Amino acid sequence: MAMLDRTSDLSSVLFEQRVLDDEQQRLAQYALNWRYYNGDQKRHLKVKQGQPDDNVTMNLARLVVNKGAAFLFGKPVDFELEEGTDSPPEQYLDDVWQQNRRSTLLNKLATSGGVCGHAFVKIVPDGIRPRVARLVGLDPAYVRVAYSDDDIADVYRYRIQFVALGRDGKAVNRRQDIERDDAGRWTITNWIARGGGRWEPDGENWKPAWRWPWPPIVDCQNLVNPHEFYGLSDLEDLPLQDALNFTASNVLRILRYHAHPKTWGKGIGKTDIEVSADDVLLLRNEKGELHNLEMQSDLGSSLEYLRELRNAFLAGARVPRLDPAQVNVGALSGFALKVLYGDLLEKTGVKRCTYGDLLQELNRRLCELGGFGPERVTALHWQDPLPEDEQSEMTRDKFERDYELASLETVRARRGLDQEVESERIEAEAAASGNIGALLLRQFETQRAGGAPGASR
């Protein structure tokens, strides 16, 4: 029995060490991804003192992350709680998100998730004003989770830990534990450690009251990573980025030293060369020779390899390569654009699932904070991220309206227009111009779309 106990203890220690190693590896990967996103990438060529620096950084990492964020949240996503009406809960949600600068917050969230692979949002009740929570996009490197042994989706503790500067200018360690007890209640405790000392309660705000049945943190994977808690980033192929920079740097160094011809002579000395008034070289030695040494290759194979590396990196990130020499975007139809952007659209569809779950759960908790109950489910209306083909859009809108396949509200929503605002503006213009007939027709169209004049949904 004693031997079994020692074996069990050893297994526990090894498991805990593996968990710590995995955590350190995760944080190291986050730091590496951020460096590459910011252009601080590996330098492959040694540079001697006084020598030009030929290291080239072709930062496709930032392009990939920014393109993914733009396709996900570049155009506003609309929230709807009750179809056809602008209900008080909906107005409340719009107010909360407006106060939190929705588009900016979501783009930052998508960028952080694209770099790290996971996204966290913290709810700070009454953070802006009473009943209006502040929403904070957390740095994934500051968050560590603990979950059930047999269910990684069952998180029972979030730990937020970071180093900050106190008001006295000295560095302090801060930690917040958000933990669920055996009775299912969530509690929050704040800790502080000064000068590398031990953790102590953080003053009067050590254990603030928390009365909600859920934690103040909502999270999601950036890209689906089955059987793991943390998701996949958009930067899973950084070795290809290194190979790209290495090849580009060597091409530049070759061009620097060998692109221009070098003149060489045979059978002549310095006194045998004369330069005339019109810069003509004259050789006094009739046996002397003067030649140019030029590159025998235009580096075609190297440049082709560089293009292949670039294409491979973008293909792995599922971002299309739009080379004006090969793709005339202006001549592409809407269908052709969907084919060209097919991989990126599929990738965005996956992100809409993960980030969409986060938004729905976040809105549900916000509605409960606002006093509108715990069971509010938000319908998310995403816009088409593709570049607009105005002629095709106009043809489709007219076809759907002529054959009563879509309402005026649907057409406006697809174009990113606010139903209530546009209705009021059109009615005001008709009234100002005295066009009563147009006003009556507008009211009839609105009623046929399924709502009273001025209704937003």
Topology:
Elements: H1 2-37, H2 60-73, E1 78-80, H3 88-99, H4 102-116, E2 118-129, E3 132-138, E4 143-148, E5 151-165, E6 171-180, E7 186-194, E8 200-201, E9 217-221, H5 238-258, E10 262-266, E11 273-275, E12 281-283, E13 289-293, H6 300-316, H7 334-340, H8 342-369, E14 379-381, H9 390-402, H10 408-414, H11 419-433, H12 436-448
Antiparallel strand pairs: 1-14, 2-3, 2-9, 4-5, 5-6, 6-7, 7-8, 10-13, 11-12
Q: Can you walk me through this structure?
A:
With 457 residues, the protein is α+β, with helices and mostly antiparallel strands. Among the domains are: 262-294, no CATH class; 388-457, no CATH class. The protein contains twelve helices and 14 strands. The protein has helices spanning 2-37, 60-73, 88-99, 102-116, 238-258, 300-316, 334-340, 342-369, 390-402, 408-414, 419-433, 436-448; strands at residues 78-80, 118-129, 132-138, 143-148, 151-165, 171-180, 186-194, 200-201, 217-221, 262-266, 273-275, 281-283, 289-293, 379-381. A five-stranded antiparallel β-sheet has the order 4-5-6-7-8, with no helix packed on it. β6 and β7 form a beta hairpin. The longest helix has 36 residues, at 2-37. The protein starts with a helix and ends in a 9-residue tail after the last helix. The model is unreliable at 452-457 (pLDDT under 50).
